[in-house]
Structure formats: structure tokens, C-alpha cells
Amino acid sequence: MKHLKLISHNEKETLDFGKTLADLLKKGDTIVLTGKLGSGKTKLTEGILTYYELENEISSPTFTIVNEYIKENIKIFHFDVYRLEDSSEFYAIGGEEYFDNGICIIEWGEIIQDALPKDYIHIKFERNDADENIRILNITSYGEKYDELLSKLEGYIESIKY
Questions:
Q1: Could you report the per-residue pLDDT of 130-143, keeping only the tens digit for each?
Q2: Strand 30-34 vs strand 103-107: parallel, antiparallel, or unpaired?
Q3: Which domains does the chain have, with CATH numbers?
Q4: Which of 9, 14, 130, 138 has its CA 20 to 30 A from that of 156?
């Protein structure tokens, strides 16, 4: 397990971080996003989709649970499980079948904690009470394969510190 902390000063920095993260992702990767409403989860997802030139297709999956995006040979599954009661509803929609078939981004992933794969990246978003634009992203790897990915992100985070 590895932990990083990123302070994003505005939406553009969150978007740019999403693009940087996307460059390191591949089929079978899972990103779990947690935090209060309006904390930047969807903005990070937009950054990931922007990397794949899919930014014009983004929509919140709140009412459909999952949106699927395809760019050439990669599928991206964007889940918003906020409306689910628990992981049993996730299993009922066949949610676990998505994990090996593309990149999975799961907003509100704490709701389905026991359904998550054993290896994933967790990004917890926090707001800064003193500045409404600042977001603190606590990034934790679960599983050795993501420790290496976080090591690569470490250089990026160091380069944007003010």
C-alpha cells in the first residue's frame, strides 16, 4: 500500500491530474473515487475521458449506474453507485463482470466496498474550508500493481507543488 497526497488548486488542475492518471491506466484497472458531492470526482473522470478524447461524451451515470465509453481498443466504464443500497445491487447488475473488461471508474465506491476487486486505486476527495476551489486528493494503492503506478504519479505531484 502506497499513499500520495495531491492538492488541486482549481478544476483545471484536477482535470490535468485525471489526464496524467489516464496515461498510466490500462484494461483491468479500477479507480475508486470517494468524497462529498461537488468535491471533484466527476471532474477527475472528465480528465480521464479527455485523455482519450471522449470529453464531449461525458455525462453523469447517476440514473443509469454505469456509462460505457469506447475509444479504439479500450473501454471505460464510469459507475456512479450513489443510488445503490449496497453491493448486492451492484452484483445484481453484473457489476463485477466489468472489472476485467476495461478501465473502471467508480464514484461512491465505499457503498460497494466488499464488491471491489482486491487491487485498485482509491482517491478520496476533500474540500478545503478556507478556499472553495482547493481540493485535497488522498490517493492510496491497494495491491502491488498499483504501488508502481503511484510511484510514477509521485513525480507528477512533486512537479506541481507550489
A1: 898 999 999 999 98
A2: parallel
A3: 3-160 (3.40.50.300)
A4: 130
